[in-house]
Fold:
Amino acid sequence: MNIRIFKKKQIFFSIIIALCTHSYSIAQSSSGTDGSDFFEHVRFGGSLGASFTNDGYGIFLAPKAIYDFNQFTSAGVGLAGSYTSVDDFSASSFSGSLIGLLRPVKNIQLSAEFEENYVSKNWELEGANRKDSYWYPALFLGLGYTAGPVTAGIRYDILYDDTKSIYGSALMPFISVYF
Structure:
């Protein structure tokens, strides 16, 4: 593994750990207790998906944890993994993300999510096997409608690169569920 990529990965995960620790300490100090009610403000959930065609399939799993600071703001972390296989092409990706949610009006949710993705692609071209692996960032800004634990909406990756992204478009719909 390239040292430069390793250092970027190490910095990214250090930031995630620091933000989680900081969020926990803020929640603990603001509760005025020993922090035992921290998990009363945490919601777990995420997204999952699958697609099937005559030529292949794709699966996606993205668990997330969100801390509700109040009725208007939340922040959290997530993981995601996907695998796609179509004809002579396969790709897998793994990512970690930082999530911020803002609910300025009842049922309306604004979101920002930074993902750092690791992608591994394999395909056959002109009788030869090709492989490519790399890291790339994504920054999604989203707008959604919330009804109970479900939010449906659309998000846009402002860092979208059609040569590296595993997503077919910078603009994509989403459905998330948190309990």
User: Anything to note?
Assistant: The mean pLDDT is 85. The chain has one domain: 41-178.
